[in-house]
Amino acid sequence: MRDDVPLLGLKNIGPTIAARLQAVGVETVGDLRAAGPAEVYKRVRAAHPGTTIPVCYYLYSLQGALDGEHWDALSPAVKERLLQGAGAKRPTPVRPKRAKR
């Protein structure tokens, strides 16, 4: 994929994520490659203090966009490397709600 390709429209990158990336100076594949997904995730978090920036929708999605795959398809080893690079915690699995009796 060419470095001048805009991020909006790549796999995992919708309008909200693209706008937040643009706000921290990341608009193209080349920008993302140069900084790396972990650094870009840290920039987005720093730009939005007090806002939850989900690991899966940002950190993993950025790597998936570069790889051309859905963020959930990344291997556990890649996810762990990204978490360490970003200084982020592993996401807590969501438990299904129990039906009321």
Q: Could you explain how this protein is built, in words?
A:
The protein has 101 residues and is mostly helical. The chain has one domain: 5' to 3' exonuclease, C-terminal subdomain (DNA polymerase, domain 1), CATH 1.10.150. The chain has 5 helices and no strands. Helix 3 packs antiparallel against helix 4 and helix 3 crosses helix 5. The longest helix has 12 residues. The chain is globular, with a radius of gyration of 14 Å. The chain starts with 14 loop residues before the first helix and ends in a 15-residue tail after the last helix. The mean pLDDT is 89.
H/I helix tally:
5
Q: In the CATH hierarchy, what is the architecture at level 2?
A: Orthogonal Bundle
| Mean pLDDT level | 89
Question: What proportion of the residues form beta strands (DSSP E)?
Answer: under 5%
